[in-house]
Amino acid sequence: MFMIKQVFSGIFQIKVPLPHSPLIHLNSYLLRSEEKNILIDTGLNFSQSFQSLRRGLSEASIELEDLTEVILTHFHVDHVGLIPRLIEASGNIKISIHPIEAELCRILSSTYKDLFAKIETFLKSNGTPSSIALKLTESHPLHEPKIIRPYQELAVATHPLEDGQVISVGDYHFQIVCTPGHSPGHICLYEPSFKILISGDHLLPSITPHVALWWFTENMNPLADYLNSLKKIEKLDIEVVLPAHEETFINHCERIKQLQDHHNQRLMEILTSSNSRRFTAYMKASQVHWNINYKSWNTFLPFQKYLALGETIAHLYFLEKKQLIKRTMVDQVLYYSINEKAKKRKKY
Ligand SMILES: [Zn+2]
Ligand SMILES: [Zn+2]
What we know:
This protein is α/β, with parallel strands linked by helices. It has two domains: 4-103 and 146-256, 4-Layer Sandwich (Metallo-beta-lactamase, Chain A), CATH 3.60.15.10; 266-344, Arc Repressor Mutant, subunit A (Orthogonal Bundle), CATH 1.10.10. 38% of the residues lie in helices and 20% in strands. The protein contains eleven helices and 14 strands. The strands form three sheets. Strands 1-2-3-4-5-6-7 form a seven-stranded mixed β-sheet. The chain has a five-stranded mixed β-sheet with strand order 8-9-10-11-12, with no helix packed on it. The longest helix has 21 residues, at 252-272. The model has no long low-confidence stretch (mean pLDDT 92). It binds zinc ion (2 copies).
């Protein structure tokens, strides 16, 4: 498979391998011009990924020292992982990210010591049995120094990106479009003249972007944000989408419709599969049909259970805000019950 492809004049897609990840690659994009060279997203913090990125850049006649700026679409590890190595290699490279994402990096690195207590409490309060909550906490990726290291870098100094800001490189004038949902400060880059969207993880051709509610995003409504961000992108005149995973694609409105249908079905599934008894988010996560290859909930890997739980909580919170379900706390565990009228609805 090619590792680098010039997708438009001066815009290169570099496939950075993601070791041990089912996502396989991250698409990093190089915007090359006479005056500046901007990299969008980086890859996981592994030597193999770093070497591939370096090789890809040099095929586009760019050395690490020639990079002037890195723009991060969001704070997830597969996008920010190589930041420490890029800072080390390129000196005073400018790092730009939305301020909400920079704040999350500060939270994840500054509360490091009591981070795992918070994760365990969050899991238990959502109905995860104690032994499983302990297992999920002990196997959490944030235990690995190579995961936490980029957050420590990003917590210190970044340049804030804001909605509508224009990034000019050569003939291109990319607009920053805030698209919260997959993460609270996720951004896309839109070029209106060339009709190009660099979509990060907001829009992927076949993978459904993960939308979850976590202990560090409490009181946010990520699914409502995500659906609103889909509508925002739907209105744009786009010919080609350059996603952070998988391949470039066209027909963004068709893909948006599929994603809207997916979430509507998931919301209906949660409501109609629930009898009148109260349930926890963990119980519901174990009943939902997930789009991965698995025999039963018990065969999920610990981190898959963690992701499924976060996604279920986002859907439950969305339904609660629409007053279709009720939430009550009993002995420090959150229970949900369905408003009977909600079951008759066809669309949410
Ligand atoms: Zn992501
Ligand atoms: Zn990603």
